[in-house]
Design brief:
membrane; about 90 residues; transmembrane; transmembrane helix; rod-shaped
Amino acid sequence: MMLATLRLGRFGAVTSIVILVTIASIFSLSGVGPTTMISGGMGLRLQILQAYFATVVMVILPTAGALKSRGRLYELKRAERWLAAFQMPPFR
């Protein structure tokens, strides 16, 4: 998931989260998912799975946002350097 976020930005983050939620939900509802090791009813298992999803979202989406803002800052700095290269020196 983090690799998809680093390579594709927000699109990769959202896509990987949707894939994770889909696969984990299908397997958990069929009784063979990652929550089968938890003793308790299906409601408890799904709540724990939701907490896991929330944790993933809280880590991945801010990372994608930080990468986006870093890219904008990089482009701004590059444009400043390009403009500075063509600036005329002051007359003396």
